[in-house]
Write the structure tokens for this entry.
Amino acid sequence: MSPRHSHRHFMRGVGLIMVAVFMFSSMDTLAKHMLRSYPIPPLLWARYFVQFAFMIAIFGPRMGLGLVRTKHPFIQTARGLLLVCSSVFFYLSLRYLPLAEAAAITFVGPVLVTALSGPLLREKVRPRQWIAVGMGFAGVLIIIRPGGAVFSATVVFPLISAVFFSLYQILTRKVAGREDPMTTLFFSALVGAIATTIPLPFTWQTPTPVQAAAVAALGDDAGVAAARERYIVRRALLRSAVETAGFEVDGSEAGLFLWVTRDQPDTETVGWFADRGLVVAPGGFYGPRGDRHVRLAITATDADLTDAAARITA
């Protein structure tokens, strides 16, 4: 991939992330407003069913049955159920907590992923990552403020949501590189649509025109939800590949890049990737903290990233 081509993908990725952040903020605000007078199950059903229909319409004609063909049906089903459980508890937190506090408490998710990656994925967690975990946990405690005005039993809802979402990300890592990314994305929507349809006959409430418009707006964010999950899958795919090749991923729990090291000069690592037809950025270019690292972007197309993962592990 040429530097110009890589830069174009990077700028596209930045734009998509900015749109996604705005859309998710809008979606949470709409959900908070709707939950004042509308039950949770129909809202969740709209969110997952529209994403399911969206993926069928976009990817079904091109992939056919390949969209549902998987070698790991139990893991894929478990991923979908974990995501639904995370959504249920987050919506519960929106009903009982201010939106800002509920969203902030769920940011403990990356802390949990780092803490669980050692025992569940057998990954090496460096001391400075544990320090970051501790600082993140301290930040959550500051937000929760045990003994303060915000603290109540209801703060467990966003915490439980974060736990389920962390386990969802762990399982996503387990299937990365072994499943088509679109199949992994589709199973999240499929399982979510099925699971949220079960209670629908018992909880359905015909929405008013204003509520119907809000529900439609929530469903319209399905494409953004798919984009978020796509980046989760992309990150897991590329991370699995570089770790298989003997590299360590350092401080890359979120964002558009992976910072990779094999504890050698970054110029040597750049050459290693160049020998495989891949362009990466030397970490030293970004300052002393990037020394002996290289930076890999996850903003290329799914096809390009799948090809890159194959080259890295060849």
Notes: The longest strand covers residues 257-261. The chain is about 70% helix and 5% strand. The chain has one domain: 3-313. The mean pLDDT is 78.
